[in-house]
Structure formats: structure tokens, C-alpha cells
Amino acid sequence: MTKKRKTTSSKRSRKKQAKFTPFAFLLLLLIIGFLFLGVYLKWFQVDWQALLDGDFDHVILKPPVVVEPVSGEWYKLYFTSPQYPDDERTRVYTIVDGLVTAINNAQRSIDIAIYEFNLDQIADALIAARARGVQVRLVTDSDEIDELEVLIRLQKEGFPIVPDERGAIMHNKFVVIDGAAVWTGSWNFTPNDTFRNNNNAIFIQSPDLAKNYTTEFEEMFVRGEFGPTSTANTPNPKIQIGDTLIETCFAPEDNCSDKLVELVQSAQQSITFMAFSFTDVAIGQAVSERGQAGVTVRGIFETRGSETEFSEFSQMKRQSLDVLQDGNPYTLHHKVFIIDNQVVTLGSFNFSDNANRANDENMLIIHNPDLAAEFLAEFDRNYTLAQNSAQ
């Protein structure tokens, strides 16, 4: 009788073992990729028209617009009222009082990034704020920290102040109050910028905008990132408050010059500007091209800056654009564009290569015709003064 031969377990059941083939691995990667793409597209927008046109430089996924509800008056705008000659008996303190009020209303925190600070009224308000338990932190430019009496005073009082410690400048002039509101503009906290120079400041109630500026502040204060070392990490680049779109740009990481060029190129009816320093060739060329295309251009240059060989003033004059040197015997310190009477750019950002590539700067692009009208009124006041000065 023939005995059955025993078989090994592998021979008894030749079950196929699942193998992770290259094809399966590729399929898994594709599935994961589509899942990530779906999540990404939920929060970001693709410029499909640029994709169809083959303009791959502008197909970059755009961040979403963060929408905030409107609750009453959400911004206050301030202009200085310089006088010549400067007379202490008739000085106008409106802009100082505005910031002091904001500081006095702070409950938890005040973060300040300021280029020049030499006003005792603001220092007194900060000392009082700290005395009632408000956290106060400051960032400034290293060239100013040991030169200006108020900054020296605050250091002696024990306030934490971080200087940039580099050749280029920390040129910001912003304040974040309680992580809920932002003060920014062209105004330094000094007697000259308050009583002699033309300046602007805006105070905006917006937690999402405050988050942008707090992120920028902590890059400098906490991590010591200044200028080209700054990270491009603005959490809410576009914010919608009611009918107003606000775009935030920090230099040098966000390339504010390119954003300004793009905005100028979009002008259909008018370009109006006030410029302390205007040496950026790309911005100047964009203005000139729109002017040659029939867009109305009106501009005011700060006189001393306009007389340098690098200024765009002479080029625009040669093209018969309506540009003037300012009429303030002191200084026109605005850094403002108004496009089509609808959009305003403001902040510390001068129209220069240094501002775009080296300094620490900020710029807001605000789409609001009412705000534009207020800046146009400021422009008209300075334009009339410039005309009278030129006669």
C-alpha cells in the first residue's frame, strides 16, 4: 500500500501573499495627493484664467479672504497739521491724543515697532499702562535706541526693548493693542513728525489684522528676524471688513514693490500719490506708462528727496505728468497712493529699493472709497500748498 507523502505547509496551501507593488504604492500616493489637494483647494483659490493663459508665474494658489463682521466704526484716520514756523502755543495734538487714548484703553498687551520715539506723552501713557498690569513690548532701530531721550527713559524704567542691530533700518511705525487693533502709518512718535511734517496714521479695529502685525512683531522681538531674514508668514494677507478689503504687506519678505506695481498698472482713471522718497524705478515706470495711456496722474514729491539723481520726479516731469515738489518748508513724510479714488496704500513703506529689499516695513492696501476721499482731501491741501510754493 502506497503511503501518502507528507507535504510542507507551503506546499499544502500555496496561498498568494499580498505584495506591496510599485503600482500600489503609486496609487496610494495619488490618493493621498488628491486628498491634500481637496483640502488645500477648500481654503485656497487657483487663478484658473492664468493657468489657461499659460501665465504660470501667477497660477500660485491665493490665500483666502478672511471675513470679519462690522461692528460700528472700525477705523479712525489721523493727519498731522504742521505749521510754519513751528509755534508751541498753537500746536495740534490730535494724532498724539489718538494714540494715547488707544494706549489708555489697553487691557492686556501693547506691542510697538517704532523707528523714532521721542514724545513724553506717549511714554507717560505706556508707563501708566504697565502700572495697571498691561504687558508692553517694544522693537526699534539700533541707531535710535541710545540717541532718543524717551527710549533711554523707557530702558531705565525696565521696558523690554529689542533693537535690530544691523545696518539697514527697522522703519516700522505700528502698535498692536490687546491683539485686537492696529495703529500704523507714516508717523514717527517725535515732535518733528507731529508738529512740522505731513504724516498720517490709521487705527483699525480688527483681530485678524492684529494677528498679522503680532506675527510680524514677534519675528523681530522673539526670534530676532529683521530685514531679509524675516519669514513670509502673514496669517491673513487679505481681510474683508464689511465692504472693505484690506491687504497686508511686510517688506522685504512680501515684495511690496511688486504689489504696488500691480496695483498701479490696474488704474483705469486716476493715480494720485504723496511721496517722501520715490526712487523705485519699477513703480515709477508703472506710473509713467499709465499716464501715457491716458490715466490722470497727480503727485507730490518731498522737495529734498526729489532733487536727488535717483528720484523719479525728473523723469515724470519730462513726460509732462502733473507732479510737484511739496510746499512744506519742513518735510512731506507721506507714503501714499490713491488709485481710481477707490484704493489707498499707506504705511511706513517708502517707494525705494531699500524699503523693498533691506528695511523692515509695512504697507496696507485698503479698498475703501470713503477712506480714499479723506486722503484725496489731504492731497488737495498739500497740492494747493505746493502750487503756491512753486509760484
Description:
By secondary structure, the protein is α/β, with parallel strands linked by helices. It has a single domain, classed as Endonuclease Chain A (Endonuclease, Chain A), CATH 3.30.870. The chain is 36% helix and 23% strand. It is globular.
- Radius of gyration equals 27 Å
Strand order of the largest sheet: 1-10-11-18-17-16-12-13-14
Q: Tell me, what is the CATH class? A: Alpha Beta
Q: What form results from the Cα inertia axes?
A: globular
Number of domains: 1
Number of strands: 18
Structural class: alpha/beta
Instruction: State the helix count.
Output: 14
Which spans of ≥5 residues are poorly predicted at pLDDT below 50? 1-16
Q: Can you identify the CATH superfamily?
A: Endonuclease Chain A
- According to CATH, the fold-level topology is Endonuclease, Chain A
Euclidean distance between termini CA atoms: 131 Å
Helix content: 25-40%
Average pLDDT taken over every residue:
91
Instruction: Give the CATH architecture.
Output: 2-Layer Sandwich
